[in-house]
Amino acid sequence: MNPIQQLTHLDDLKFDNNFIRDLPGDPEKNNYPRQVLAACYSQVLPTKVVNPQRVAFSSEVAELLDLSPELCNSDDFTQVFTGNRISCGMEPYALCYGGHQFGHWAGQLGDGRAINLGEIINSKRERWALQLKGSGPTPYSRTADGLAVLRSSIREFLCSEAMHHLGVPTTRALSLTLTGESVIRDMFYNGNRKAEPGAVVCRVAPSFTRFGSFQLLTARRDHALLKQLADHTIRTHHPHIGEPSPATYLIWFTEICQKTAEMIVHWQRVGFVHGVMNTDNMSILGLTIDYGPYGWLENYDPNWTPNTTDAEHRRYRFGNQPEIAFWNLGQLANALYPLIEQVEPLQEALNVYTETFEQGWQAMMTEKLGFNNYQPETDDSLFSDLIALLQRVETDMTLFYRQLSMISAHTQDNDENLILPLMSAYYVPDQVTADYKTHLYDWLHRYIKRVQQDNSSAEERRTRMHAVNPRYVLRNYLAQLAIDKAETGDFSMIDELLDCLRHPYDDQPDNEAFAEKRPDWARHRAGCSMLSCSS
Ligand code: AMP
Ligand code: MG
Q: How confident is the model at residue 248 (pLDDT cuts 50, 70, 90)?
């Protein structure tokens, strides 16, 4: 990027706060919990903190905003992105939205601990909304404190960036700061209250509007405002579909269905489990949003969820994410119905979700296995048998797919040698019995035959596979190790992980340790395999 375009002062950021300019806000200016009617947001200032300290920043996100590294290292940056100083052009506000939580309509939720600073236009004329998470109470905080703790802020900061570098649509994170104040949390809601370091993440996305933003307006029968919000969203974020009308609302909803399907295909590709797919946590732009008790699949288990709050029904388990996204889109369709007033085209748009997901999933599996193209007669059974095989014994998903590229399809090796590259993927060597191996050999022989039909070189196949099967993901235990260190005042591992996760598809000899499967100590440790919504 041309250094001349980089800003030297945060007051030079060019804000264009069209959300609050176009849409009605809450007339009440005092900050206390309440129901906010006939408005899309409430203006509210971040709470000042005693001793802000910068922990980390993402240089890529800084670049998106035209911020120089020197600026990101300045005290002013730390003051502004903890909410202590409102820079020129910022007009802070919290969004009003509702949502279905765990399948039940919850009414008004809103930004209880997020405060939008405004939207900037960068030198490439892109629009980016900036939002502080954990910067104090808003009218939507209900009985909670509006704050966030260091552990969950590290998780959000690192995972947003890791997902971006993996090619998964996501909100981004500019910075992670400590407030210098402590926050009381009962991590597992079991009476063990503890003071934890307070932190703020500055999140960045074109928009933070959620499915629940529309749902709340429809639930309140505020159809005029529903139309206003839809029109604003289309004009700002989907100008290519034309001026708002019942026809364009449908095109827009169809795009949301497509984008959401594409996002879920990516989640299933990399083994990401969101953990709380409530409709208030679904972005209208199809971005991964609200990193709470998320997790990464270690051993491939479609029934796994990291979220202890969901342990009983496992609504948001890995294998259920595609179905839940569809259900959530169904709720959004209900919310948009007053704008369209026809059921059938909405249903057709929902079918587009299913088609996009199914085709995307097939294409994704085809790439993961390194095939040239999808051949239903052979590939469907290869996909489903592989998924069954991965569940038969504890098999690390990330390592298995990555190592599969090392299986030679061209040399005649005996079976024991053939499977050597895969052995690092197994958690319990004793589970790799003769019976298991029979199934593995059988699948591999079919796989090799299929690879041979493609006529690609080993190199071509490996390159294809390495482009979609990451070597590095933000393993649950790695995030926890970075948190353990940070809680003692050593933030080095946050930067080390961020550095490594910038290139998740490259082999990085210096970072081999970060590719290791979960060590045994982490199997049942809080933060590694179990997380709650307390953050
Ligand atoms: P989540 O499922 O974590 O996205 O949160 C659901 C709702 O609770 C959202 O409206 C959040 O803003 C709100 N919320 C979560 N934690 C807090 C907190 N510590 N203070 C205020 N509101 C919160
Ligand atoms: Mg949320």
A: very high
The model's pLDDT over 215-224, given as tens digits with 9 standing for 90+, comes to 999 999 999 9
First-to-final CA distance of the chain: 37
CA separation for the pair 291, 295 (Å, rounded): 9
99's enclosing H/E stretch is strand 98-101
Whether 4 maps to a domain, the answer reads no
Q: Is the CB of 276 under 6 A from ligand 1?
A: yes
Residue 274 CB–ligand 1 contact under 6 Å: no
- Only one residue has tokens 């979960």, namely 518
DSSP, res 51: S
Q: Which of 280, 290, 310, 396 is catalytic?
A: 280
Question: Cα(278) to centroid of ligand 2, in Å?
Answer: 8
What is the number of structural domains in the chain? Answer: 4
Please name which of 134, 130, 163, 173 lies closest in space to residue 47, comparing C-alpha atoms. 134
CA 148 to ligand 1: nearest atom: 19
* Inter-residue contact 213 to 309 (CB < 8 Å): no
pLDDT beyond 50 at 1: no
State whether 261 and 354 are in the same domain.
yes
| 181 and 111 within one domain | yes
Q: Which of 141, 132, 145 is nearest to 182 (CA)?
A: 145
User: Is 290 in the same domain as 411?
Assistant: no
How far does residue 401's CA lie from ligand 2's centre (Å)?
32
283 closest CA partner among 316, 249, 259, 309: 259
Is there a single domain that holds both residue 14 and residue 154? yes
Is the distance from CB of 201 to CB of 115 less than 8 angstroms?
no
Task: Say yes or no: 190 and 99 in one domain.
Answer: yes
Helices (H), 341-421: 343-368, 376-392, 397-404, 415-418
Ligand (nearest to CA of 535): 1
- Work out the mean pLDDT of the chain and round it to a whole number: 97
pTM over 0.85: yes
Closest atom of ligand 1 relative to the 146 alpha carbon: 20
431 and 492 assigned to the same domain: no
Same structural domain, 136 and 197: yes
Q: What is the residue range of 419's domain?
A: 373-455
Question: Ligand 2 centre and the CA of 251: distance in Å?
Answer: 26
Q: Is the CB of 98 under 6 A from ligand 1?
A: no
